[in-house]
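agent> call fold_tool(seq_1)
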Amino acid sequence: MLSVVRAVEAGATTMKGVIDATGLSRLKIERALTALEKQKLLVRDGQGFRATGLPKTARPARQCGSCNACCDILEVAAVDKPVNQLCKHWQTGTGCTIYDRRPQMCRSFVCAWLQGHLDDEWFPAKAGLIVHFSQDAVNVTADDHCPDRWREEPYFSKLAEWSLNGIRRIGNRGYATLIVSGPDRFMLLGRTIVPEPTLFGTAFLPLTQDTFRYWRAKSPEHLQRLHERIAEIERIRQEFGSCAIPDNEDDDPQAPYRPALLRLSNHA
């Protein structure tokens, strides 16, 4: 809901404006708008959406100062700005030359450092990393001048911590931790790095407190079968005290799962 709040506060007055600013689905935005109306924080009328008293937490706790990382690192399709290329509308000594008519994405974007969630080591111009929160993810974009900075400390431990917190949350409150570094995409499962996660999802099983075994799904049906097998592994663990974990990431399990798992675990 906070991303919708920021979009409206920044000037988005229509459903299309909020969609463009947040990237959320129409359904999620409608739910957020309804909740804001109930809290009397927003009014909808013939002229669109108007903020009537948005939470103070929606306002940045800091100022950008010398940092223009978001104008350099992030993609802004509305002004044909590709990722990791300084915006053509940025001018040294002047800043944004179209500030009063900048796209809605630029108006509503607030990074995690600017919100006050991170200490000064995460100052984007220094770290080469931009962190921002969406409804279901912690999103990290790396400057192409330091594409592996996110793997270094103190950054990696913090990202791993966020990932574990997201995994431990229940149901729809959970979130993913995603990293974009040039053409590469990664997802963190604690301290386990999943390269190029698929759109269909990733099934995973804890190995230690902060590491996981994972399988990248090739289809929704494949993901369902992986989850069914993981559930059977957990049942065998409870019954026998241990269960071997298949180590072939490319496998496509088929029911019944129990006999094969018992043989693999020498419990048959």
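agent> call fold_tool(seq_2)
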Amino acid sequence: MSYVRCQRCGRPTCPECQRQAAVGIHCVDCVAEAARALPTTRTALGGVRHEGRPIVTLTLIGLCVVSFVLQLVVPDWTTRWLFHPVVAFYEPWRFLTAAFLHSPGQYLHIVFNMVALWFVGPTLENALGRARYITLYLMSAVGGSVGSVLLATATDSWATSSVGASGAVFGLFGAILVVSKRLGGDVRGILVLIGINLALGFVMSNIAWQAHVGGLVTGGLLAAAYAYAPPARRQLVAVLAPVALGAVLLVATLLAYASIGAFSS
């Protein structure tokens, strides 16, 4: 038995459970209780400030990397989850799952997307808080797929499949533009970055620029709701804004499918 007692609660604590404090030794239970008692610090946009690594961004990168490895070793992994405008009408989960896939034969595809995600993700994760950040990312991914559906007739791409986190990443581009503007930052560099990447989609082949546009618009709109919400209404807006935007995306998608007679087939 340990004869060292916690200076806070007086209970004996074993060597593995001892934590050095400013005054004496504390047990792990008292350390956890003290941490919970600390006031929550928030960012300028109301996000809960977390010290340490950007957990959500690292998790998203990890999921994309794991999925990419599965694409290389599981024969039908890509075809099972990729986005195809017509197939997605019957399998709507593809609106999201395609964002965790990349072109198996083009390693630069996943490298560029993950570098871009790491470039802007941690800043937004810290500014918005983890919950709003992951919501924005996932909705931007869906918005990218919706963009592909809405522009499919105009671009004759109903039979074109697509993969990649680009729609979600462009959503983060749109969000960082809005957030930086809201906080009084210089957005010229961000505008140049968005302009160059959008232009590449029009001049290079095999790039789903429709998803880029859809993700950019979705991320920008949701970020605007988050960034410009009155402080007293931020929690409410954090719930209502994604629901409202999701409803708009759903209606727009259904109308696009109706225009090609999907419901009569």
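agent> summarizing second result for user.
The beta strands are 18-20, 25-27. The domain at 55-260 is CATH 1.20.1540.10 (Rhomboid-like fold).
agent> awaiting next instruction.
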